[in-house]
Amino acid sequence: MINKLTCIKICNSRFEAEMIKNYLAIYEIDSIISSDDLGRVITGNYSYQGVKLFVNEDDSKRASEILESDDFKIDSSSSTE
């Protein structure tokens, strides 16, 4: 049986996607990050299409609920100084 993957989130940065991936792992949900890192290296900008986070289709509803919960919030607009 082949598991289908579902994109549950498009992030602004690889760092944000890695944080979410690690958070989902706490709940034993495996995820895969897909991004155009080469474009970022060459131009210094983030991928035009964003950094996509995929989970198995069977886990997509639970993963989305976890990310929408009040326990998990990422403010991607904040900057570090």
How would you explain this protein's 3D organization?
The chain has 81 residues and is of the alpha+beta class. It has one domain (5-61). 36% of the residues lie in helices and 21% in strands. It has 3 helices and 3 strands.
Going across the major beta sheet, what is the strand order?
A: 1-3-2
Oligomer: single chain
Major sheet details: 3 strands, antiparallel
Shape: globular
Distance between the termini: 48 Å
Question: What percent of residues are in strands?
Answer: 15-25%
The number of distinct structural domains comes to 1
Number of strands: 3
The overall pLDDT, averaged over residues, is 80
Number of helices: 3
Please give the radius of gyration in angstroms.
13 Å
The helicity comes to 25-40%
Helix-and-strand structural type: alpha+beta
Unreliable stretches: 76-81
From N to C, what is the helix and strand string? EHEHEH
Using brief descriptors, characterize the structure shown.
81 residues; alpha+beta; three-stranded antiparallel sheet; 3 helices; 3 strands; disordered C terminus
Q: In brief, what are we looking at here?
A:
This protein has one domain (5-61).
Topology summary:
Layout lengths: L4 E7 L2 H13 L4 E4 L2 H7 L7 E6 L3 H9 L13
Antiparallel strand pairs: 1-3, 2-3
